[in-house]
Amino acid sequence: MAVKGLGEVDQKYDGSKLRVGILHARWNAKIISALVEGAIQRLKSFGLLEENIIVESIPGSFELPYGTKLFVDKQKKLGKPLDAVIPIGVLIKGSTMHFEYICDSVTHQLMKLNFELNLPVIFGVLTCLTDEQAEARAGLIEGKMHNHGEDWGAAAVEMALKFQV
C-alpha cells in the first residue's frame, strides 16, 4: 500500500514571517524524532527561520490536546503568538482497547482546538497497527513510504497563510 501524502503544495508560500510550534510526545522516541525532523525541514523549505520554529515535548499523545492549548497560550503570553501548531504523536495498537480510546479522544480534541484557539492545529498523530507501519510513515524504512512530518510542516504553512487578507 502506498500512502502518497499531501502531494504538491497548491502554490508557493513564503513562510519567512511565520512562527510555528511543534509539540511532540516522547513515547516512541525514534519515530517521533524522525517526524519532528521532517516537519522542521519542510517548514524551513518555506523560509521559516529556525528561531521561529518552537519545539516542546510532553509525556505522551494523550496529553497532546491540553498540552497544545497550554503551549499556544504560553507563546501568546510571552508576546510571541504562533501562526500554527503541529502536535506530533504516535499511537501503536496493542492488545487492549487503550489504543482505540486514545486515538478517538485525541483526534476529536485536536480537531476542536482549531476552532477554540482560532489557529491551525495540524493533525500530526500517527495511528498505526504495527511498529513497522509507524516506522514506514516516519520515513525510517527505505523505499516504503515518505516522512509524514514533511506533510504536516507543509500543511501548517499553507493553513497559516492561505486565507490571510
Automatic annotation (TrEMBL):
<comment type="function">
    <text>Catalyzes the formation of 6,7-dimethyl-8-ribityllumazine by condensation of 5-amino-6-(D-ribitylamino)uracil with 3,4-dihydroxy-2-butanone 4-phosphate. This is the penultimate step in the biosynthesis of riboflavin.</text>
</comment>
<dbReference type="Pfam" id="PF00885">
    <property type="entry name" value="DMRL_synthase"/>
</dbReference>
<dbReference type="InterPro" id="IPR034964">
    <property type="entry name" value="LS"/>
</dbReference>
<dbReference type="InterPro" id="IPR002180">
    <property type="entry name" value="LS/RS"/>
</dbReference>
<dbReference type="GO" id="GO:0000906">
    <property type="term" value="F:6,7-dimethyl-8-ribityllumazine synthase activity"/>
</dbReference>
<comment type="pathway">
    <text>Cofactor biosynthesis; riboflavin biosynthesis; riboflavin from 2-hydroxy-3-oxobutyl phosphate and 5-amino-6-(D-ribitylamino)uracil: step 1/2.</text>
</comment>
<keyword id="KW-0686">Riboflavin biosynthesis</keyword>
<dbReference type="GO" id="GO:0009349">
    <property type="term" value="C:riboflavin synthase complex"/>
</dbReference>
<comment type="similarity">
    <text>Belongs to the DMRL synthase family.</text>
</comment>
<keyword id="KW-0808">Transferase</keyword>
<dbReference type="GO" id="GO:0009231">
    <property type="term" value="P:riboflavin biosynthetic process"/>
</dbReference>
<dbReference type="GO" id="GO:0005758">
    <property type="term" value="C:mitochondrial intermembrane space"/>
</dbReference>
<protein>
    <recommendedName>
        <fullName>6,7-dimethyl-8-ribityllumazine synthase</fullName>
        <ecNumber>2.5.1.78</ecNumber>
    </recommendedName>
</protein>
<comment type="subunit">
    <text>Homopentamer.</text>
</comment>
<dbReference type="InterPro" id="IPR036467">
    <property type="entry name" value="LS/RS_sf"/>
</dbReference>
